[in-house]
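Q: Focus on the chain.
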Amino acid sequence: MPSVRELSALYENVMLSPRRGPSVCGTCFNFTDGYTRCYACDHGRLVLDAMAPISYSVAREQLHHALASYKRLDGDVARRLGASLAAILWRFLSEHERCLAHAAGTAGFELAIRSPGSSASSPHRPATGTSGCSAAPTPPSSRACSARRSSWSPHRSRAAPCC
């Protein structure tokens, strides 16, 4: 069985870490046209205490292909892509979970939830957990990520400042 590092190694050089800056939404890191918040965050309901985007997914590039194919395909290919994407999440949490927990105002989490980029579930797999999300315990080194805590407040929603 391949290690987390081996499963995620193919994506190390293509990850584009979202950064704060002009024309970037301060809540979700989506690109804006010079606004401080994107339309969805400015007009929608914020439900997370904190969130931390892992990477931009650029159309027709390697990470985008993996994410789109994982959602659209089934069988061995989808399982392999899912394992690689879960390994990327595992590595991200092992390095940055403390930042996310701090931004959420908690010492840690019990569960990490990976959700699809759209509301549509894969036609090949039934939804698992929350609207097509899958969940897994966080890495043993940090033992703790759920995007939500029981004392959620919409006034605290913000992007996690990461290391």
In short: Strands lie at 50-51, 112-114, 134-136, 158-159.
